[in-house]
Structure formats: structure tokens, C-alpha cells
Amino acid sequence: WIFASAMYFYYLNSADSSNSFADNSDNGGGGGFGPASIRRAKAESIGKKDRAKNIVITRQQAADSQASSASQEQQVMWTNFDWKAYVAGGAWHAGEDKYAKNKFNQQVSDSVSAIRDVPDTRESQCRSIQYDSTDLPDTSVVITFHNEARSTLVRTVLSVFRMSPYHLVREIILVDDFSTDEDTGKLLTQIAKVRLIRNNRREGLMRSRIRGANAATGHVLTFLDSHCECNKDWLQPLLSRIKSDRKAVVSPIIDVIGMDNFDYIGASANLKGGFAWNLVFKWDNLNSRELAARTRDPTAPIRTPMIAGGLFSIERQLFNELGQYDTKMDVWGAENLEFSLRVWQCHCVLEILPCSRVGHVFRRQHPYSFPGGSGVVFTRNTRRAAEVWLDEYKQFYFQASGGARYIQPGDVSERLELRRRLNCRSFKWYLENVYPDLKPPSAPLTKRGELRQGEKCLDRLTASVGSAPAMYPCHGSGGNQEWLFSDSGQITSSDLCLQAMSATPDARVLFSRCEINNAMQQFQFNPPNTLIRLKASPALCLDTKPIDGASLQNPRLHSCIAEGKFQQWSIKW
Ligand code: UD2
Ligand code: MN
């Protein structure tokens, strides 16, 4: 019956087939997910043994495989799968908007082969490492998707097989999160080792991944987004690190597949994942100590305070012991924050392995809807993480994120109980030992609002030390265009302060780390309509007049002119 569970695809039928999130926000088990977890709990105690691998197979999976409906004879090796016909069945048609369905260029994606060579982006030292793949644990690859383009999905699946020792891929579990076209997932189960679970309503990526994990049988779980391409020998570093330390949760370096042209570009290996007090994921440069360590050994794991979220491996049993995901998070966002804090605070380690590389199509917009609205859903998810893991530091999150205090997180008692049961460490410990770069904000932040000139607003863009904000059309939804104004005159965003580079006309105004006593970070303003003067030199004002040839309007200091349209700001608190 190993065949039955590994080679067939199946559905787990839920009685409720409504397409709605409304009923799973505040009650017991997260809507339709509750019963499954109860079945699972029973199942763990019944467990059967897989003779070959000595892995416990649960009643849950037995139930899943009974619901299977494709026969083994219909399956082919991945090498024989007719991916061209498959892609053609869902292809972009001339005349349609290329970006409409996926928010990446589907025409280009459809025209790129599902079997293509991408550049080997690893550092040379990685290429000489030999892994004994006969001696590594195997993995179930879990890929959840909602209305993914066929061309990107099949490229993801085939790249897993092409780039991995076949025996190390126990199975690929696709979780179709209620996509409109059922065949997108179903047809892929013709490929040997591919299994499918389909949700009867939108569950969001967290509950979908949990369903995939609960059906998995491999020793390790490897999660991927549905638009990835695995690079050469990506899997062995992940599995061998977990083999040497079961408490290591590991992520590849995420290379970039261009959303417009589908070019595969190597990403920097000198980054780790982090966040500012708004708790939004960002990439941080490694500090000098970490860079020195990388120079000594470019193949060594990079400890990361946070993971981007989509691509990682974890021992399956550890994933379950650590409490999987928060089932009351919806759709997208902040599960990676919650997971990262939990991994560190609950006695495990989170790493990026520079010798493992996987490409991912990064997009600027979500191609799918958020029942309830993306801002609300994201903030609620984030707040749930903050409520459980941030202790007294939660107040900094409330200060840095405008709406969070107004959005109810729902019941987090189960997650707090998990934290207690696992005897996890404090957020203070995490700050001191894992993320010392994240400093408590240096000044109390009191007011917030946009910095507006006519139809344009100052936008923080990427907000890193030394970068400049610029004027963009106002969007009115806070985020990148929301600024905090402290009593002492600091203007901050993303926990960085605007700082004049000198007290002279033409001086640039850039993001810097906030320092309480730095006079170059103190401005004077008098809303609603006001000049913004440098306190230390009040004849100098924040000015956005475009410099000759520059395409962006970056702020600078200039001699104050009472009526200057590039100096007059309207600030609404
Ligand atoms: C990043 C992560 C993503 C996730 C997210 C935070 C990477 C490369 N990607 O966003 O995995 O951690 O941050 O939540 O690190 N999906 C569903 N159901 C939904 C919505 C999405 O199945 O309701 C699938 C989607 O098809 C995709 C995956 O979840 O395969 C992640 O979604 P995304 O690609 O839109 O997220 P991304 O890459 O912007
Ligand atoms: Mn993605």
C-alpha cells in the first residue's frame, strides 16, 4: 500500500465546499481545517510502519489514499511527460493581457522550455563538494498553488526531478488551493511520484502547506513556491545539513527569475533575511563579522534571523513537533515571520545554505484576491505572530505599523500554549543572540502621516542606510508613504531616520540609523502646511526640486523660500 499512497493522486473531501473565509476566522480549528487535525491526532497513535523505511504512516494518509483515483499504469516517468501538450492546454492567447492572470509575463513563460538549463550560480567552492547521496534522508517536496500558470508550475515540478538524485525525492505533493482550472494540478499526477490534494475552498498558503505536510511520507519536507526552478545539486546541501543536525531549518539562496523576461539571475550570497519594527520581511546585508566568515568559508551556512518563507527544508517530524503553522492565518503573509521566530526561540536554528540555489519569479503584485482585503489579512497575520512571540517588544510593532492596533488578531491561546509547552525563549533572547542589528527605536514615535506636495508623496522606496526616498504619486494607503514624526523632530520610516548629509545648501538627505542626539536628523515643521527646516540650521529647508538630468525627485537641503512649491509640504496626522 506504499504504492497506494505514493503513486496515486487523491482528494480529501470536505463536507463544506463554500468558497469563503468568513467562517474560519474566530472559531476553534480554523474552519474546515479543524476536523482534519482531529483525525490526524487520532492517527498518530494508530500509526503503521512502512517496512522499508521505518517511517510512521498515519491513518490520515490511509484515508487520503483511499480517496485516490488515478491508476499506477497511467503514470509515466517525468522524462516522458508531454509537458508541451500540458502547457498548451492552459496557454496565454494572443490578444490577452500577458500580465493579467499571473502578474508576470505569461506569454514569455509559456514560450520558455519547461526543461531548460539555467546558469550554475553557485560559488566555485561549492562545486567541488561531494555529497554521498546514497546516505542522505529523502524528502517530500510540497508545492501549494492557487491559479498558477501551467508553464511555471510544470517547470517547477520538472526542475525538482531534473536537478535531484531521483531516489531522494520521495514524492512531490501538489496542493491545489481551489484553483479555477482543476486540470492544472490533476494532469501533473500522470507523472510518477506526483500526488495531488485539492482544497474544496480557498484555504490560503498556510493551511494548504499543512495539508501537504500531513500527507507527506518523506523524512524531510521541502517547500517550494509554484514558480521556481531548482539549480544544480540544490537538494543535497539541504538534506545533508539536516542529516548532521536535525534542528537545522535550511533555505537555499533564492535566485531571481525575471518576471518580464524569465532570465535567470544569480542573487547575492551576502544577504540574510530580517525585518524592521513593522515586521515586514526585508533582505539585510551581512555585517563585517559575517562577511569575514564568508570569505573564510563561502560554503558555510549563513544564520538568518528570518526566511523569505517559500523555499526551505525541515525534518518532517520537527515541522510537526514545532507546531507546523498557525492555522488561523489566512491567504498570504507573516507565516514566515511567525515560523522564523518560532524556530529560533524554540531551540532550533535557521540558515541559508549558499551552495543550494533555487530560482523564483518575484512579482510586484499578488495575482490573486484576498478575501477581506490584503492589508487587513496581512496585518492580522502579522499581529498574530507579534502577540505570540514579541513579548514586551510588541509595543514597537504597534508604533511602527499604523493599523495594527485596530485589527483584532483573534484567539492566539493555542499558539501561546505551544510556546509554553516547547519552553521557548524570550524575544529579548532572540534580539540579543540572533538579531542584534535590530535595535529598539531610539526615540518615542508619536505622529504618523504622509509627506505630501500636491499629488506627490515622499516614498521611502527600499529604505536602507544610505538610500534616498523620492517623490511618487500618492497612493493614500500608508505603507511606503507613511512617515513617523517624533517629538524631537526625527522623520522616520522603516526604523531609519532622514538625515541631512551636511548643513549646507544642496546637501543630500538620506536614510541613516536613528541617533537621538544627531542634530542632522532633527527637523522643525508646523503642520498642516509647512516648510521642513533643519533645526540646527533653520535657513535650510527640505526641497524636492529635480536636479538637472535626474529622473527621480530626491529631497535635498536648500535655502528656504517661503512660497517654493518644492519646499511646501502638507502633513496630515
Ligand atoms: C513570499 C514567499 C511565499 C510566502 C510569502 C509570505 C518566497 C520566494 N516566497 O511571497 O512562499 O512565504 O512570502 O506569506 O519566499 N498560494 C496559495 N494560496 C493562496 C495564496 C498563495 O496556495 O491563497 C501559493 C502561491 O500560488 C505560491 C505560494 O503560495 O505558490 C506563495 O505565494 P506567492 O508566490 O504569491 O508569494 P511571494 O513569493 O510573493
Ligand atoms: Mn512566489
Automatic annotation (TrEMBL):
Q: Give the record's pathway.
A: Protein modification; protein glycosylation
Q: Does the keyword Cell cycle apply?
A: no
Keywords on record = Disulfide bond, Glycoprotein, Glycosyltransferase, Golgi apparatus, Lectin, Manganese, Membrane, Signal-anchor, Transferase, Transmembrane, Transmembrane helix
InterPro entries, A to Z: GalNAc-T, Glyco_trans_2-like, Nucleotide-diphossugar_trans, Ricin_B-like_lectins, Ricin_B_lectin
The family database entries (Gene3D superfamilies) matched by this protein are listed as:
2.80.10.50, Spore Coat Polysaccharide Biosynthesis Protein SpsA, Chain A
| Compartment annotation | Golgi apparatus membrane
- The record's EC number reads 2.4.1.-
Q: Which GO terms describe its molecular function?
A: carbohydrate binding; polypeptide N-acetylgalactosaminyltransferase activity
Naming one, the record's GO cellular component terms include: Golgi membrane
For this chain's UniProt record, which GO biological process terms are given?
protein O-linked glycosylation
User: Which cofactor is recorded for it?
Assistant: Mn(2+)
- Top-level EC class as recorded in UniProt: transferase
List the coiled-coil residues: none
Main localization is Golgi
**Record membrane topology:** Single-pass type II membrane protein
Q: What family does the database annotate?
A: Belongs to the glycosyltransferase 2 family. GalNAc-T subfamily.
What's the protein here called? Polypeptide N-acetylgalactosaminyltransferase
Q: Which organism is it from?
A: Macrostomum lignano
